Amino acid sequence: MNFELDQTYQFFGKVDQTNPSSYDTYPINVTAEDGEKLIVRLPAGASVQLNKIYYFETTAIQFKEKIHLRADSYTIINQMILEDDRKEELMRSFYQYAPINLKQTRHKIEAILNQIENKVIKDITWNIYEKYQNDFYLYPAATKFHHAYISGLAYHTLSMMQLAEGFLTVYPFLNRDLVMAGVFLHDIGKVLEFDTFEGSEYTIKGRLIGHITMGATEIQMVAKELGYEDSEEAMLLGHIMISHHYHGNFGSPKRPNIAEALVVYFVDTIDSKICDLGEELAEVQVGQLSAPIGVLDKERYYKHSLTNIKKSE
Amino acid sequence: MNFELDQTYQFFGKVDQTNPSSYDTYPINVTAEDGEKLIVRLPAGASVQLNKIYYFETTAIQFKEKIHLRADSYTIINQMILEDDRKEELMRSFYQYAPINLKQTRHKIEAILNQIENKVIKDITWNIYEKYQNDFYLYPAATKFHHAYISGLAYHTLSMMQLAEGFLTVYPFLNRDLVMAGVFLHDIGKVLEFDTFEGSEYTIKGRLIGHITMGATEIQMVAKELGYEDSEEAMLLGHIMISHHYHGNFGSPKRPNIAEALVVYFVDTIDSKICDLGEELAEVQVGQLSAPIGVLDKERYYKHSLTNIKKSE
Amino acid sequence: MNFELDQTYQFFGKVDQTNPSSYDTYPINVTAEDGEKLIVRLPAGASVQLNKIYYFETTAIQFKEKIHLRADSYTIINQMILEDDRKEELMRSFYQYAPINLKQTRHKIEAILNQIENKVIKDITWNIYEKYQNDFYLYPAATKFHHAYISGLAYHTLSMMQLAEGFLTVYPFLNRDLVMAGVFLHDIGKVLEFDTFEGSEYTIKGRLIGHITMGATEIQMVAKELGYEDSEEAMLLGHIMISHHYHGNFGSPKRPNIAEALVVYFVDTIDSKICDLGEELAEVQVGQLSAPIGVLDKERYYKHSLTNIKKSE
Amino acid sequence: MNFELDQTYQFFGKVDQTNPSSYDTYPINVTAEDGEKLIVRLPAGASVQLNKIYYFETTAIQFKEKIHLRADSYTIINQMILEDDRKEELMRSFYQYAPINLKQTRHKIEAILNQIENKVIKDITWNIYEKYQNDFYLYPAATKFHHAYISGLAYHTLSMMQLAEGFLTVYPFLNRDLVMAGVFLHDIGKVLEFDTFEGSEYTIKGRLIGHITMGATEIQMVAKELGYEDSEEAMLLGHIMISHHYHGNFGSPKRPNIAEALVVYFVDTIDSKICDLGEELAEVQVGQLSAPIGVLDKERYYKHSLTNIKKSE
Amino acid sequence: MNFELDQTYQFFGKVDQTNPSSYDTYPINVTAEDGEKLIVRLPAGASVQLNKIYYFETTAIQFKEKIHLRADSYTIINQMILEDDRKEELMRSFYQYAPINLKQTRHKIEAILNQIENKVIKDITWNIYEKYQNDFYLYPAATKFHHAYISGLAYHTLSMMQLAEGFLTVYPFLNRDLVMAGVFLHDIGKVLEFDTFEGSEYTIKGRLIGHITMGATEIQMVAKELGYEDSEEAMLLGHIMISHHYHGNFGSPKRPNIAEALVVYFVDTIDSKICDLGEELAEVQVGQLSAPIGVLDKERYYKHSLTNIKKSE
Amino acid sequence: MNFELDQTYQFFGKVDQTNPSSYDTYPINVTAEDGEKLIVRLPAGASVQLNKIYYFETTAIQFKEKIHLRADSYTIINQMILEDDRKEELMRSFYQYAPINLKQTRHKIEAILNQIENKVIKDITWNIYEKYQNDFYLYPAATKFHHAYISGLAYHTLSMMQLAEGFLTVYPFLNRDLVMAGVFLHDIGKVLEFDTFEGSEYTIKGRLIGHITMGATEIQMVAKELGYEDSEEAMLLGHIMISHHYHGNFGSPKRPNIAEALVVYFVDTIDSKICDLGEELAEVQVGQLSAPIGVLDKERYYKHSLTNIKKSE
C-alpha cells in the first residue's frame, strides 16, 4: 500500500516484533488483516503484547526520508466490543484456526450436553461449561503435536463425542452421561494450563500442577459449591479426569478403573493421533511417505493412491 | 432319567471323558442336550473325540447290577445332514456361545462386504470369505482372554465394523474399502491357527508360524491366483494384516504405516478390551471391584451404580 | 480365666469374628486386653464391627453345658470418654503400633511446624494440621510394605523431618518452610484414602482418586478459604504434593520441578525403605540373609556381625 | 586428462549428478573408471539414472570457452554383453564391494547347499536359489550398518555358514539340513525388499511388508508349487525365516521355537556385529577407541596392540 | 541286601538325611554305590555332612526287632587316598555328572592353553590354572539353569573353546591368546563363589562380591605377583572377565569394549543356552513342545521329527 | 601489559595452545595469573603440556615488528617446591575449583576417619587414605555432570559424610564405621580412572576396568597386605564399593545387600543431584526455569521466589 503523507489510516494488525530505539518513538512490525507487513511507530514508553491483535489509528509521517505510520491510538481487541462473526473473521485472518464452523460446533456440543439426564452430572458439567465457555471455544488442545490451533480444543472435543457415539452403540452397558460429560471435561484444565489461546505456552502453574490436577480440583470445588461434594458422580467425574492419559508416565496418577474412563481415554488418544495423521497426509504426495509423526511413535505413514485426501497446494 | 432295561434310547451328547477298561466295552461320560450326565459304553476299539457332539443310538443293559447304556451306533454331527437352525440349537446346548444371532450377524457382515467398491479389494476379500466362511462363523477369536467362545470371531468382527463406522464418519480421508476388508481379514488366520472351533487350542503350525503370517501368505496367494499379485491393493491388505497387533512384542513384524491399518488396530484392541470388560462387570455386584482383568493391564474395574448392566443370577 | 455362673464381668475386647446362629443369641470371638480369647454371646440382631475395640459388660450363663459370657451391654471405644494415656494403652494392647512415644512425637512435629516463618505456608499448614490431627496421629502410612501400623504416619513424618534437617544443613539454598510443610502435608491424603486407622484398607475413593490428588485438592481448597488461592506458596505446596512419588508409574502426575519437592521425595523414599529394612533385619539372625524385601527391589539383605540390632526373641 | 577439440573419447562412467539447463544440452557429473571426475553434456530430453554405470561415446566440443564432452551415445551396462570378469572389474571400480572372491564364494555356498540330504528341504532351497541367484550374489545384506556393499548378502551368508559349522560340531543334536538351508534362505527376501543392488533403498513394499514376511510367503508358495504345502519341512523353514530376528521389536513375529532357528539367529546376529566391528577397527590406530558402533549398542571399541589388523592407509 | 546279625559290612555311601534321636545312637539315611537305600546308626555326638560320600565300616546289630547297621568307623572320601579313576567312578555313582570324559577334557583344555604364545597371558593363565585346577574340574558352572552338575564348569569351558575356534577362523583379526585365555578364566571365580562342588550353593562372599569381581581381583593379584601389574595384557584379561555377562543387569560392570571380550560373551551365552536346550529336548517326545525353558526367555521349544536326539527312556 | 624490549619477565602461566612454526622458535598461547593472554615463543624442539601451569622466565624480543616474549626457561609447577597455600592460590587462578576451603575440608574428613573404632576398617581405610591423599584432595568427582572441578571429590565426600550423619541419627541400627569408611572409599578409584586432576579424562584402564572394580581390587589388595584378606570387614567394604551405583546399568555388578551399602548409595546419588541442582539454580533468575538438568532426568527446575540463592552476576 502507498501511504500519503499526513493522511490517517485505521486498521487491525497483529504485533510481530518490537524494536528498541533511542528516539522518542520506536518501530514495531505489524501484519495487517490483508497480510501486508507494516511498520508502525509507537511513542517511547508505550507497550504492546507480541502476537496480539490491535486496532491502530495512525498518521503517515516522514521519518528519515521514508514514510512511516505513527500510532495515534491502539486498542487490543479484547477490550473492544465486536460482533462474534467479526471477531472470528479477524482471528481467522491472523492465526491458524481449526477447520470447523464455530457456531455449528458450539451448537452440537451444547446439544450433547443438554442430553445429560443425571442431575448431578448435568449440574456440575453445565456449571463448568458456563464458567469457561469463552475460553473453551478459543483455546487449542495442545501447544504442539495435535490440534495446536485456535479452537483446537472445541474441535477435538466434538470429534471425541462423535467417536464416543460409536462406542455407546456397540457397548450398551456404558453410561452415556458419564462418557459425554467426561469428554467435555477431560481437557478443560487446558484453559488454565496455557497462558493464552493464541500461540499458547505453558504457565508456571501449568508446568508445576498441570491440567489434570487442576481439572480434578475444579470438579471437586464446583461439586462442593453445588452440594455434591460426597456424591458418587463427582468422584467418577474426577476419576475420569485424572485417568484420561491412562499411563502414569503421561501424567495420569491413576489408570482408568471404570469403563467410561477407559472410553474417554480411547477417544482422546485416537483423535489426537488420527486427526494429526490426516493433517500430515494432506501435506504429502500420493506414493510418498510422510515425515516421522511424533504422536505416532515417529513412524512414517504412506499415502497410497486410495487415500481420500489431496495434497493442498 | 430312568432307563428301562432293553429299551433303546437315541440322543445327542457331548463326550466329556473316556475311561479305559479291560472289559470288552468301556464307559464314556456324556452330557446330553438337556444337561443330564450319562454313562455310555462303547465297544473296545471304538474311539470318539473329546469335546465333540455325537448322535448316539443306545440300548439299556445291565452291567454289574446297574443299568448302563450300550452304544449301538454313534455318529459325529459333522457327518450328519442337519438344518442350520437345528445345528446352531445343538451347539448352543453344548458349548459357550457368543451372545449374537448368527443369521443376522452373517447378514450384516455380508452387507458390509458387498459395499466394497474397489474391484481388487472386493475380489480378494470375497474369495477368502467364501473359502473360509463356514469356519469363520464358528471359530472363537481367541483361546482365552476375549471372545473365547463359539462364533466369537464373527461377533468380534461385526463389533469392529460397527466401531469403524464411527471412525469413517469423523475422518473422511480414510478409505472405507480398505478398512472394512481389513477388519474382515485381520483374524481370518485364526481358523488356521486353532485346531478346532470347540475348545480351541493352537496347532503346532499356529505356534510356529502364527495367524498373522499365515493370513498374509493367504492374501498373497489368493491375489496371485486372481492375477493381482503386484497390485497396490494386495500389498495394502497384506500390510494391514501384519501390522494389526501394532507392537512387535505382540506379533506384528511391522507397525501400521497407512492410516487404515491404524484404524483396524484401534478397533481390534478396543473391542478385545471393552467387550471383555463388559463381560467381567456383568459378574460383579454394584459397588464392587472386578477381579484383575488380564487384557486391561490387570487393573480391577469398579462397577458404579450408573452401570447399565445387572449381575446375572 | 474361670468364670462363675451368674457373676458379671466387664472388660475391653477386640472383635475377631462373628458367627451366625439360629439361636436368639449368637457367639462372637473376642480378644481381651490381656490376650485371652473369649466367646461372648450377643442378642440376635445386635451388630458389632470387626477389628474394633468394645467395652463389654457381661454375665456368665450356662449354654449347652458350658459357661458362656452373655453381653449385657457393649460400647465401641470411639463413643467413650477416655483419657489419652488410657486410650493409647488400650490400642497398644490390641493393635500393632509404631515404636514411638506419641506425646513426644506430637511435641516435636508441632515444634517444627511452629518454626515455619512464611505466613501463607504457616496458615495453610496449620489449618490442615488442626483439621486432621486426630487421624494424623492414628493412621498408618501404608496398608502394607512400610509403616503399616497405628501411628505409622506420624512416625514416618517425624523421621522424614529429621532426615530433612541434614539436607537443609548441607544445601543452604533450600527453603526450610517449604521442605517442612511439604513433609508434613505429603501423606495427609492417606487419612482420606484409608477407611480406618486399624487394619486399614483403601476406600473406593482412595482407589479411584488417591491420596495425591485428594491432598492437592485439599491444599487448594484450604488456600481458597484463606484467601491464598492464587499465591505462589499454595502452588508450590501443591506441586510438592503431586510430585512426591517422583515417578508417573508410582502415581505422581508431575516429577519434582523445584528443589524442595526433590528433597521431600528423597526423604520419603529413604524412610520408607530404611525403616522397613531395619524392621526386617531385626527378625534375622546375624550371619543370615533376610527374606526378599518388597520395597527394596526384592533384594535379600545380609545381617553382618557389625549390625547394631539384635534379633528380637 | 586433457581433451583435444573434436576428438572422440569412449569410457565407462558412473552418473553422480544431473544438472538442469535451459540450453539444448545439459551437463551431468560422471566419475570415470580411473576415478577422474568428468562433465558430459547430454541432449535435452535424454535421461540417465543416478548411480548407474554407462558406456559413453563422446566428442570434445567447445562450450563457453571451455572444452566439454558431448555424449554421442550412452548405454547402461545392464544392456551390454560383457564377460563376468569384466563386469565384476567394472563394478569394483565404481562401487564399494565385499572383500571376497565372488567365484569362490559361489562355489562354497553351492557345495554346502549340495550337501543337503532331506529331499523336501533340498528341493525348496534349490528352487529358490536358482530363481534368485543372480540378485543373491549382487545385493548387499543391509542398506546401512553392516555388509552394506555389493555382494554383502553372499559374503554374510557364507560367513554364517562357516560359523554354523562350529555349532553343528559342538551340538550334534542339531539338524544340518535345516541350519544350512535356513542360513541360505534367511535374508533372501532382501532382494525383494531393496530396489537395486547398488546404493540400495527400501521399496514401498519392503517398508510395508518387509523381507521377513515376503520370505515366508515365498517359501510357502514354492512349497505349494512343489507339492510340499503341508510338509513339516516347509513349516520349519518358514519358522526359521520369521524368527531369525528373535525379537518382536526387530521384526520377528515369532521367537525361535526350534533349536535350528535359534542357531540361525545366533550366527546372523554374530556376523552382523563382528564383521562390522572388524571393519571399524581397521579404521582405527592401535591404542585408540573406535567411534561409537551402531550395531554394538553404540559402544566404542578399543584397538589394543594385540589386534591382528592394521589401519588401512 | 540281607544283613546277617554280627557280620561286618564295608561300603561307600552318600549321606541323604540325619535323624535326631534320644538314644545313644541315631540313624542316618545313606545311599550305597549300587543305589540301595540303607540306614546306618552313628554314635550320638558324631556328625557327618549331608550330600557327602563316606566310607563306612559297619556291623549288623539288632535294634528294636530290626537289623540295623552300626557304624564302627566312617571316613569322608576327601581324606582318603584313592586313584583318580576310582574317585571319578565313585562320584559318577552318587552325583549328576557332566556327559564328558574328564581325562580327555583335561587333555584338550591343557593343549589349548599350551598354544598361548604371548608370554604375559600364558604366565597369568597357567598360574591361575595350576592354583585352581582341582576345583576347576569338579565344580559346576552354575547352581541351576545350565551345566549344574559335577564337572559342568570344565564341560562348559571346553565347549566354549570349540565354538571359539569357529570365530577365530571366520574373523582373523581376533587375537587367539586373549580369546582362549579369556574363555578359560571367565568363570574361574565360580570355584570361589560356590561353597562346594556337590550341590553347590552361593557363599555369602559369593553373594556380596560375586565371581566377576573376585575373578578380576584374582587376575590383578596374580599379575602383580608375576610383575605384570601394569601390563596391557593383564588389563585386557581383566576387561574380558568383567564384561563377559555383557549386560549391567546381569552383573557386568562394563560392556565388552574389545573384540575378544565380545567373542567370550557370545560363546558363553550360546553354550549356556544351547547345551541346556539339548538337555531339555532329550526329555521330550518328537512332535511335542518342551516345558518353558528358563535360559531361553521361557519359550517352549518344539521337537520336530528331524531332531538328532532320542528321548532317553 | 606493555613489555619493554630486552627486559626480562617472570610469571606463572597456563598453556592454552601451541602453534607449529617453521622458525627456530614457535609461539604458544598462555594465560597469566591475572588473566592476561600472552604469546610466548619456545625454542623449536621444546615441548609443553596443554592445560598445565608453568613458571616462565622470559625476555622481551622483537619479532616481525612486534614485541614477543622469548622463554629463557620454563618449569612445570609439579616440579617446583611451593607452599600449600601458594599452590592452591595458583590453581584457583587457573582452574575451576570446588567452593570449599581445602584445609578445613581435610580437617573434617580426617576427624571423621579418626572416629572409626573397628580396627580392621580403620587400618584398611587409613592405609588407602595415606596412599592416595594427595590426589584425593585434587581430583574432581566426575568429568562432567557433577562436581567436575578441582577438589570436587573431597567436596563431594564431605557433603556425603554430613548427609550420612542424619541417617545415623534416625536409624541407630546402622554401623557408623562401615558407613563413613564406605563413603570415603566409594570413589577412591576415580584417582586411578582419570588421567589427571585438571580437565580430567578417562584413561583406557578407566574405560575398560573402571573405578568400581579398581576400587574393589585395591581394598582386597590392601586387606591382604595387612593380613585381613579373609575378614568380614574387607568383604563388607568391598561390597559397599561395588554396589554403590545400585543399578547394574550404572556399573554396579551387585545391588546393595547390606544396610550400610544402601546408605552410601543414597548419600552419593543425593549429593550428585542436589549439589548440581544448586549450581544450576544459581545461574537462573527468580521466576524462570533452568535448562534441562542431565543428572535429574533432564527435568527443568523452577526457581521460585523463596529460593535462598541469588543469581551470580
Describe the 3D structure:
- The structure is a homohexamer of 313-residue chains.
- Chain A has 313 residues and is of the alpha+beta class.
- Helices cover 42% and strands 15% of the residues of chain A.
- Chain A is built from 10 helices and 5 strands.
- The mean pLDDT of chain A is 92.
- Chains in contact: A-B, A-C, A-D, A-F, B-C, B-D, B-E, C-E, C-F, D-E, D-F, E-F.
- Chains C and F meet through helix 4, helix 9 and helix 10 of C and helix 4, helix 9 and helix 10 of F.
Task: Draw up the topology in text.
Six copies of one chain form a homohexamer.
Chain A: E1 8-18, E2 25-32, E3 37-43, E4 53-63, E5 66-76, H1 84-94, H2 102-114, H3 119-136, H4 152-170, H5 176-185, H6 190-193, H7 204-208, H8 210-225, H9 232-243, H10 259-281
Parallel strand pairs in A: 3-5
Antiparallel strand pairs in A: 1-2, 1-4, 2-3, 4-5
Which properties best describe this structure?
homohexamer; 313 residues; alpha+beta; five-stranded mixed barrel; 10 helices; 42% helix; 15% strand; globular
